[in-house]
Specification:
By secondary structure, the protein is of the alpha+beta class. About 20% of the residues lie in helices and about 30% in strands. It contains 15 helices and 47 strands. It is globular.
Length: about 900
């Protein structure tokens, strides 16, 4: 055989294999659910990847991961840190590193390949992660700052404190291989090297209870450092460390001290040697810079005449600056921040500007947003421009600020004079749609302003659009409200003197949010905040981190810890969330049982069904919603529900002893609950909507009473309320799913699309571009009346995705998917997508009188049960391949049920 013939035979033999390889691509490779993270402190990090294939029924059968100490070794397939070998497993999420110990500052390179039912993939692209500073001794010996106020500050009455500026010059005498900066700047910081701001993050780091834990950030600064002389500079803002209200209600409000910082820049040279630039008293600092005040509630004051040109560059004369001072370190444990920092995520151009009396102007952004305003202004040196922010206007066109309480929400800019000046804040944000401008000696235009929307740098992973314009607008309002609330913690509102991470606001809402945002790290961090806020006796606060010391002992607010843990496990498969939080959840349930359970009734509650709608819009006019109606019915039902969650958690972590304990306790609570609250009129207590919904949805109603209890619920909604809701914060978390799951999706849709009071549509009809705090947000007392507050979303978004779009996880993390969209008269199309931890899921249907078309996509390494609306399976065709190729399961309630694997499908049902 000649050589050409031999080569031809080899090529022919390899053709099928090459084709198979080309069909499988690995994307979205992550370490600890982050792409190429820097400075992690998880010593056994978890890997994940998406399998992309145009083929159907693709399931992973094995994987191999290589982790190497250099990119060269990885390219040579030398996994000197870890070579997993070929592991026969379908796991493609949360795969735990099992290699050599990972040391501080190590940069590790990794890649993965898989074997699937459709063939073997190529190696993924090369990825990396770096380890942070794992030991206390890795950090410099001292924190620096100025632990005092200066003469121009006013901290006794206004919490008015200027920013701190620090700088240092250093030499880099060799060729640099790499450099990393690890920084803790409390409360907030900006980092500069040679005059350039490092990274795109803003308002960093994420806030915590600094007596418990402190987050540091790591940046690759290789490209910022030059051979020879260099300068590093930082600005420290107040954030939550120097609290927004220093001397107001000290029994309630926590504060932690004056701003301070700790930083290490580690430089690695090509010859293998290293150098460290650390914070110490060789740094110089000043508080007499241009940021004269910065306060999350009140705004920022900036005096451009105080600018020191070149302060963060080499050669600046800092002889008038003070020597940096060593200060006491915070008591919290230093930890790597494993959730994303905030960034400017969107920009908005104002839609209009109008003139008011007294040379003032009103700027309209067209959208209630969260962030800050960048301005361009020109004028004489010393001229001041004032910006006041609000969510809405009064009837006379003036700002409506009554709902801000004592938050000033004002920026003050003093011009340096000369050319056009551009400025935006560094350390304060607010919720606003309108801005009052004053101090201009000319008429500004909309082109002088840019609204910058700021929230955590997490991806939007869900889309949702229907044939109903109102539903689409409600969804849009929800997106804007949720995104704006992501501030390293889930704040309740972005405008008034509160902005607190209330636990009760996020119970079911966090679950719905996950269909819109990739918020797994965000909520894992918040669960840690909740754990850290737990008292030794087991009590959990209503706000966490406990910036406000509210430990009121109830089931519905602290219980968000269990609901968010359930969400993370169900939506992302994060078993670590269950393991990490299980002891705290168990301790809290024990605490509440020991203190407040009498004859299996949990007697203690605080809020009841918080913020229930007044009977009519006028009956609530001018009245405060800040009223509590404690309910032992609610607290007992929630305790029962939490026993059922603990049973799920116990099974997940193989704690069978606790499973038995909670099953017995739950049964006793259910019996006592029904004996006390169920009456011979087939409803609970006084027949309030929430009082019936929660025991029914929690599975507490005796089976022979389910139908009658649900009938009372539908009578209340349909007849008494004339198709409207009447729930507060607690009941609204279960209303939509309860109506849907017990057979009335049509009534759920009626509630969801009402344009009259009360409802989400009523908000839209009255000009809302986000979600109101109160159902009667346009008539209630303004003292507790935020116009951007996501708590009343309840389970609406869950219902949108799981029931309207039909995208629901049957097993953890969408490994098994249920696709079952509800067919509702008047809703003719739904087009939704959700980028799950396994990959993209799509559901896009349209229906007419004679036809139903449904295009769906299922990600590789998963499968789905699809419920196709049809009288019989013979009405169904599949336009990409034959329907006969699919596994038919059964007919169920005018649905043909098929089990399908991954891939794209186009179903058509011809109604005969």
């Amino acid at each position: 055989m000649n050589i050409k013939a031999y080569i031809s035979i080899i090529c022919i033999c390899l053709l099928p294999f090459s084709k198979v390889v080309a069909q499988i691509v690995l994307q979205h490779t992550t370490c600890e659910m982050l792409e190429n993270p820097l400075g992690i402190d998880v010593q056994r990090p978890r890997f994940a990847w998406h399998i992309i294939s145009k083929e159907r029924n693709v399931m992973q059968t094995a994987y191999q991961i290589l982790v190497a100490s250099s990119e060269e070794k990885l390219k040579a397939n030398d996994g000197d840190l870890w070579d997993s070998g070929k592991v026969n497993s379908s796991e493609s999420i949360h795969v735990i590193y099992s290699g050599k110990p990972l040391n501080s500052r190590l940069k590790a390179y990794w890649k993965v390949k898989t074997w699937t039912t459709a063939g073997q993939s190529e190696w993924s692209a090369n990825n990396y992660f770096t380890m942070g500073l794992l030991y206390y001794k890795d950090w410099p010996k001292g924190w620096i700052g100025f632990d005092r106020a200066f003469p121009w500050d006013n901290i006794k009455t206004d919490s008015r404190l200027s920013a701190r500026y620090f700088r240092k010059e250093f030499q880099s005498t060799k060729q640099i291989k790499s450099a990393a900066a690890s920084i803790i700047g409390l409360g907030l910081y900006q980092l500069f090297i040679n005059g350039k701001k490092v990274g795109e993050d803003v308002l960093s780091p994420s806030p915590t209870d600094y007596t418990k834990n402190i987050k540091y950030n790591t940046y690759d600064v290789t490209s910022y450092i030059q051979n020879g002389k260099n300068a590093v500079g930082t600005i420290l803002g107040n954030g939550r460390f120097f609290a927004m209200r220093q001397n107001e209600k000290p029994y309630k409000i926590k504060t932690f001290g004056f701003p301070k910082m700790l930083m290490n820049i580690n430089i690695v040279y090509t010859d293998g040697t290293t150098a460290n630039i650390d914070t110490d008293d060789s740094w110089k600092g000043t508080a007499d810079g241009p940021i004269r005040a910065n306060n999350e509630y009140d705004g920022e004051e900036y005096d451009a005449t105080k600018e020191a040109t070149g302060w963060n560059k080499i050669g600046f004369d800092d002889s008038k600056w003070a020597k940096a001072e060593f200060v006491q370190e915070p008591t919290g444990t230093i930890e790597a921040q494993m959730n994303e920092n905030m960034r400017v995520m969107n920009t908005l151009k104002p839609v209009s500007i109008s003139k008011l009396a007294g040379g003032r102007f009103i700027l309209d952004m067209g959208q209630n947003m969260v962030g800050w305003l960048q301005i361009k202004v020109k004028g004489a040196k010393g001229k001041q421009v004032k910006l006041r922010f609000a969510e809405s206007l009064q009837e006379n066109g003036e700002l409506f600020t009554a709902n801000l309480r004592n938050a000033k929400c004002t920026d003050l800019y003093t011009l340096k004079g000369g050319e056009m000046e551009t400025w935006e804040p560094a350390f304060s944000y607010r919720g606003f749609r309108y801005v009052e401008l004053s101090g201009y000696d000319y008429e500004p235009t909309v082109n002088d302003f840019v609204g910058k929307m700021i929230y955590d740098n997490i991806k939007t992973v869900g889309t949702f659009e229907t044939s109903d314009a109102l539903t689409n607008q409600i969804f849009k309002n929800a997106w804007w409200g949720i995104a704006g609330s992501y501030k390293g913690i889930p704040v309740d509102c972005p405008q008034r003197n509160e902005r607190m991470p209330w636990l009760g606001d996020r119970g079911a809402v966090a679950y719905g949010e996950n269909f819109l945002f990739d918020n797994g790290r965000f909520y894992a961090k918040w669960l840690q905040d909740i754990r850290n806020s737990q008292k030794e006796d087991g009590a959990i606060p209503d706000v966490a981190p406990a910036f406000w010391r509210y430990y009121s002992d109830n089931m519905t607010w602290p219980g968000a810890m269990l609901l968010v843990t359930e969400m993370l496990y169900k939506q992302t498969g994060d078993i670590t969330a269950v393991r990490d939080n299980y002891p705290a959840m168990k301790k809290w349930l024990g605490y509440m049982q020991d203190r407040y359970m009498v004859d299996y009734i949990l007697t203690k509650d605080s809020y009841g069904d918080w913020c229930m709608p007044p009977v009519t819009i006028e009956s609530g006019r001018g009245k405060s919603a800040d009223k509590k109606y404690p309910s032992a019915l609610i607290s007992t039902a929630y305790y029962y529900h939490f026993t059922q969650l603990m049973i799920q958690f116990g099974k997940a972590i193989d704690n069978e002893e606790d499973v038995k304990t909670y099953r017995i306790l739950g049964d006793k609570i259910k019996d006592a609950f029904n004996q006390k609250y169920y009456n011979d009129k087939d409803y609970y207590a006084e027949n309030a909507l929430t009082d019936n919904i929660i025991p029914l949805y929690f599975g507490m109603v005796p089976q022979n009473k389910v139908e009658t209890v649900f009938k009372n619920i539908t009578n209340t909604v349909e007849i008494t309320n004339k198709g409207h809701l009447s729930n507060g914060l607690v009941g609204i978390q279960w209303l939509m799913r309860c109506l849907n799951d017990y057979g009335r999706p049509d009534l759920a849709y009626t509630v969801a699309t009402q344009k009259t009071y009360p409802g989400w549509g009523y908000m839209v009809e009255n000009g809302a571009t986000t979600i109101w705090e109160l159902w009667n947000g346009n008539t209630a007392d303004p003292k507790m009346n935020s116009q951007n507050h996501v708590m009343m979303l309840g389970d609406l978004l869950i219902w949108y995705y799981e029931n309207l779009a039909g995208i629901k996880s049957k097993s953890a993390a969408f490994k098994k998917i249920v696709m079952k969209p509800e067919m509702i008269n008047g809703l003719n199309s739904v087009n939704a997508s959700y980028n799950s931890i396994y990959g993209m899921i799509k559901s896009n249907y349209t229906k007419t009188a004679g036809q139903f078309k449904w295009n769906i996509s299922i990600p590789a390494n998963t499968s789905a049960l699809v419920y196709i609306p049809a009288n019989n399976k013979n009405e169904i065709s599949e336009k990409i391949k034959s329907i006969k190729d699919l596994k038919f399961i059964k007919m169920e309630h005018n649905r043909a049920v098929y089990e399908i694997g991954s891939g794209d499908y186009a179903f058509v049902v011809e109604n005969k």
